[in-house]
Task: inverse folding
């Protein structure tokens, strides 16, 4: 087998000759570093993850082999599926969180009645906060070899990158840490995407020749087509099984669709509204009201405009010894209602002992912010110590509105942060 | 002197007839930006904010001498709007639009690269050369002319920091937001390269945030090229929990890489003046001459 190094089109063009051993080592190091970046990138935000059975259903339509099987919502259905496909089966929990295998969400069974029992167990499980509602029952594949293949949007290189390895079926991140050279990386030209020779080069580097090379080339090309058609940030099959008969089969398949492309995929729009199990009750309440909100473990409620400014506000509060209870970005151009909702939700949380509103108005207007705060005061009262820092567009109008309701705003973010921390400490 | 835009900039506003487009065109004109036309498909022959509107950029260029563009069109149309500007030879192309599909941005950025155009954004507050020209949505009055170049991944935080610099008498040459999306036309290394060759800039400020590797890449570049100008930085997100989203796609951490502390450390090791809080930046610039001393 050829050494599994990272060779991209551009790099090859620039190569003056054969790579020295040092170059190879450097590439391995780079591959390792980039892997870490990629895995980080894979966890951005709440995203449009597809269930395995959904991913496999679209894959089948594109000519990607998957094990014979079907999805079931009850244990009886699971048993009937087993009867239909026969042999030994695997029963897999259909959840969006990672790590179902370790949590016991994947079981094997030799007989249909056994499948019913295992399915009952799995359908009663909650994995990392996510209730299991469906199981996928599939024929257990006769594997000659297990591989790993993935196509991701690679932000550091501004392209799509293929990751592939002949060490599949295991924790691939661990493989990348222990032996980065075992994970091939191949960048795709952003303008033209995967050409057949891109896929063939990867097949070759994985040691495939002749018909097997063609077969794996087709498999990868189809995964790539899926990534394009569905605007996938990630298409990943681990393991890809090389069967005794030489076919390649996606035994597992993860697909994450780019949220921003949902206007092109009406079929997923409803699905995207389902709330991720990783969201807390407070977070879901805030998000339903259009706020970018993350719950944290402290006691000072934070409201601001702009993600960067809110982050800096959290940092300042921490710097002065306080603990933020949340991140809440009302966004650019927020109106009074938005601000009022944010304040209501945050001061209503038991854990919050004081609230810090930090507004630097550009598109946002101080008078709107002030109106929102005053509305809350009139309707439900200000229930927790409140510190307001508010400067920028329409500052004077805003301050007048606050003053008329007996509230004041500060100029300096630092002083305001110190003050709010002292209110909680006192 | 400044980078990318200045008095010589004559811009087209793509999406001028929309709410955001017309509102900010007015503010840009108020700032003194030379805007020569607007483009909205289907509205050619009308006027908006006192400017002629054309159906396409090619049509606008028959009547005007534009050399740059700012885009406010909705996300589904942003990729082709950007390509149209690039095809017409306009640069820079500032893309304010947010929530553009990552694949579209990837293709557009490659398109620009192959044709020598500069893209700022997407999902950026834009770019301003203090006292000369503003292609963006930032409040103009917090900036004042001077010698500090500023590149940022954030919007409001940029205004916060520019305002504190201005308050302490430190003016700016050009300030630009690279954009909050996973794929952006410029990264911090590109920003450093631009300011390196600008005689009007003697100090560069980078405003980063958690997630991604743009700050680490900048630190490597500064160290490896013995960057000749003073660089200062602030990184937002030290208090961020791991693995939680902070409003921006880019703002996330899941391990040691990409954390604010890791970024601050690599920047410090490259000789960058790193502020602990935003208000410390002007103090660092006033009291420290060079990071290398």
Result:
């Amino acid at each position: 087998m050829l050494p599994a190094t990272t060779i991209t089109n551009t790099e090859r063009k620039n190569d003056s000759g054969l790579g020295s051993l040092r170059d190879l080592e450097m590439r391995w190091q780079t591959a390792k570093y980039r892997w870490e970046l990629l895995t980080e990138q894979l966890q951005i935000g709440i995203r449009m993850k597809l269930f395995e059975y959904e991913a496999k259903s679209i894959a089948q339509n594109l000519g990607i082999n998957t094990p014979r099987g079907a999805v079931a919502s009850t244990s009886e259905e699971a048993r009937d599926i087993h009867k239909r496909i026969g042999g030994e089966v695997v029963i897999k929990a259909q959840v969006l969180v990672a790590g179902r295998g370790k949590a016991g969400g994947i079981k094997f069974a030799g007989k249909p009645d056994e499948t019913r029992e295992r399915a009952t167990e799995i359908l009663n499980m909650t994995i990392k906060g996510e209730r299991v509602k469906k199981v996928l029952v599939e024929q257990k594949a006769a594997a000659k070899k297990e591989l790993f293949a993935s196509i991701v949007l690679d932000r550091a290189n501004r392209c799509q990158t293929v990751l592939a390895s002949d060490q599949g079926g295991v924790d691939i991140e661990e493989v990348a840490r222990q032996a980065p050279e075992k994970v091939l990386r191949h960048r795709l030209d952003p303008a033209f995407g995967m050409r057949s020779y891109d896929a063939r080069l990867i097949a070759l580097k994985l040691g495939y020749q002749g018909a097997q090379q063609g077969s794996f080339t087709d498999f990868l090309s189809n995964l790539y087509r899926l990534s394009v058609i569905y605007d996938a940030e990630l298409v990943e099959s681990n393991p890809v099984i090389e069967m005794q008969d030489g076919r390649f089969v996606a035994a597992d398949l993860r697909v994450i669709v780019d949220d921003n492309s949902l206007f092109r995929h009406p079929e997923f729009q409803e699905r995207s509204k389902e709330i991720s199990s990783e969201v807390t009750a407070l977070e879901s309440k805030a998000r339903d009201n259009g706020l970018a909100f993350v719950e944290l473990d402290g006691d000072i409620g934070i409201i601001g405009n702009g993600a960067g400014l809110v982050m800096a506000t959290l940092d300042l509060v921490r710097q002065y010894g306080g603990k933020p209870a949340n991140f809440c970005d009302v966004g650019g151009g927020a109106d009074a209602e938005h601000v009022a909702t944010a304040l209501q939700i945050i001061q209503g949380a038991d854990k919050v002992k004081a609230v810090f509103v930090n507004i630097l108005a550009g598109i946002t207007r101080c008078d709107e912010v002030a109106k929102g705060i005053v509305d809350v005061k009139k309707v439900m009262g200000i229930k927790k110590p409140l510190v307001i820092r508010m400067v920028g567009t329409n500052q004077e109008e805003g301050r007048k509105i606050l003053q008329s309701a007996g509230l004041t705003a500060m100029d300096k973010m630092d002083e305001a942060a110190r003050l709010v921390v002292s209110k909680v400490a006192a | 002197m400044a980078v990318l835009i200045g008095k010589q900039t004559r811009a087209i506003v793509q999406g001028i007839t929309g709410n955001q487009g017309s509102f900010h065109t007015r503010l840009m004109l108020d700032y003194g930006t030379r805007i020569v036309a607007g483009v909205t498909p289907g509205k050619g022959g009308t006027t908006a904010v006192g400017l002629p509107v054309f159906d396409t950029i090619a049509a606008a260029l028959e009547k005007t001498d534009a050399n740059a563009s700012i885009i406010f069109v909705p996300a589904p149309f942003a990729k082709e709007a950007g390509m149209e500007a690039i095809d017409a030879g306009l640069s820079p192309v500032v893309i304010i639009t947010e929530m553009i599909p990552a694949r579209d941005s990837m293709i557009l950025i490659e398109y620009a690269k192959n044709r020598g155009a500069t893209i700022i954004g997407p999902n950026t507050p834009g770019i301003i050369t203090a006292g000369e020209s503003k292609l963006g949505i930032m409040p103009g009055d917090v900036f004042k002319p001077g010698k500090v170049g500023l590149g940022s991944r954030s919007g409001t935080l940029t205004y916060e920091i520019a305002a504190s610099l201005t308050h302490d008498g430190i003016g700016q040459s050009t300030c630009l937001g690279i954009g909050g999306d996973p794929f952006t036309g410029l990264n911090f290394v590109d920003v450093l390269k631009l300011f390196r060759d600008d005689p009007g800039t003697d100090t560069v400020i980078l405003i980063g945030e958690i997630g991604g590797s743009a700050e680490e890449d900048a630190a490597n570049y500064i160290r490896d090229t013995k960057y000749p100008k003073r660089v200062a930085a602030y990184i937002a997100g030290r208090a961020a929990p791991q693995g939680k989203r902070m409003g921006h796609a880019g703002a996330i951490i899941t391990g040691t890489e990409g954390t604010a502390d890791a970024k601050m450390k690599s920047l410090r090791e490259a000789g960058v003046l790193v502020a602990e809080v935003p208000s410390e930046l002007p103090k660092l610039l006033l009291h420290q001459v060079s990071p290398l001393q």
Remarks:
- The domain at 138-287 of chain B is CATH 3.40.50.261 (Rossmann fold).
- Chain B has two domains: 10-120, 138-287.
- Chain B touches chain A through 65 residues (CB under 8 Å).
- Confidence is low (pLDDT under 50) at residues 244-256 of chain B.
